[in-house]
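User: I'm writing a tutorial on reading structure tokens. Could you give me a worked example: one chain, its sequence, then its tokens, then a sentence or two explaining what the tokens reveal?
Assistant: Sure. Here is the example chain.
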Amino acid sequence: MKYLIKPGRHQPSFSVTIASEPRIVGRSEGFDSKTFARMAPLVMEWVGLNQEALSRFWWAGNDLMNDQVQAFIADLKKV
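And here are its predicted structure tokens:
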């Protein structure tokens, strides 16, 4: 999954695997090092907590109706 500080096509970002043990697989050059050091562990923890749901959404999310997507979002665990 891709983490961006704010929405936008050309915003700095980093990517994390959706796996039982998430890891960073990419980081854009413009992503601030201090912000990355603070956010990367939190994002990896969040992905780990939600790995099953994120995987299901990855494979079947485009078949869901809007209310189902909203329910999916509401059910995600928070860090």
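What the tokens reveal: The chain has one domain: 2-75. Helices lie at 33-49, 51-60, 66-75.
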